[in-house]
Amino acid sequence: MSTVYDCGQPETRADGLRAAASAVRSGRLVVLPTDTVYGIGCDAFDGGAVRSLLQAKHRGPDMPVGVLVGSWSTVDGLVLGVTPEARALIEAFWPGDLSIVLPHAPSLNWDLGTTRGTVMLRMPLHPVALELLRDVGPMAVSSANVSGRPPASTAQEAQDQLGESVAVYLDGGPSGDPVPSTIVDLTGTEPVLLREGSVSAQAVSEVLGVEIGPRS
Questions:
Q1: From CA 150, how far away is CA 143, in angstroms rounded?
Q2: Which of 65, 106, 152, 213 would be 158's cystine partner, CB 3.0–4.6 Å?
Q3: What is the mean pLDDT of residues 185-194?
Q4: pLDDT (average), residues 26-35
Q5: Where are the domains of the chain?
Q6: How far apart (Å, rounded) are the C-alpha atoms in residues 23 and 188?
C-alpha cells in the first residue's frame, strides 16, 4: 500500500525521507518533488526496479531513464570522463534545470533502457530531492506520469496516475509551471541541444562559447 508524506512539515518530512530511502534500497519506487515536475524514481543500479518504473509509466526500454545525482562529484564515478564542456555546464547550471548526456563508465552495472552507452544526468534544485539523493546515491528518475499523459506538478496528480505502483509519495507542494529540463548531448564532437526547457539555448551557448542547436 502506498504512503504519502507531507514534506512541508518537519516531522513528516523526516519520516517520509526515511521511508523513501528504505523503499529505494529495497527495490521499490518512490515519487519525489523536483525543481521541474514530480519524478518517479528508484535505485539507478537496480535493473528490476528500473523495469518496474518503466512498467508503471507504460513505457518501454526504447525511452531510457535519466539519472539524478545529489552532488557534482558523484558524476565523476558515473561517466567515462567529465569534459571541459560538461564541467562548465555543471558549474553554471547545477543544481538546476539542465540535463547532460555523456558516455557512461563501461564498468557500471546498470540497465536504464536502450542508452547506447550513454547516460543523462542532472542535479535537481530541490531540498527534498537532494536530501534523498545524498542518502541513497544516484537514482533513475523519470517524470511521474503515465506515458502520453501530462507530467505531474503535484504529488496528488502523480498518485492519480501511478497509484499503488509507487511505495512512497513525498509531497513537496506544487512544483510550479510543469516545464521540463533542457537536455544537452555532449557525446559527440559538438554539443547538441536535444530539448529546450527551463534553461534557454542562448544561456547554454553563452557558457559553452559556441552556438548550440538541435542535431541537423
A1: 9
A2: 152
A3: 93
A4: 96
A5: 3-183
A6: 37
Find where cell 512539515 sits: 9
SS3 annotation, the chain: CCEEEECCCHHHHHHHHHHHHHHHHCCCCEEECCCCCCEEEEECCCHHHHHHHHHHCCCCCCCCCEEECCCCHHHHHCECCCCHHHHHHHHHHCCCCEEEEEEECCCCCCCCCCCCCEEEEECCCCHHHHHHHHHHCCEEEEECCCCCCCCCCCHHHHHHHHHHHCCEEEECCCCCCCCCCEEEECCCCCCEEEECCCCCHHHHHHHHCCCCCCCC
Cis peptide before 138 (omega within 30 of 0): no
Query: Could you give the C-alpha distances from 100 to 4, 71, 164, in angstroms and in order?
Result: 31, 14, 31
Distance CA 182, CA 35 (A): 12
pLDDT, tens digit, 9 for 90 and up, residues 101-136: 999 888 777 877 666 788 999 999 999 999 999 999
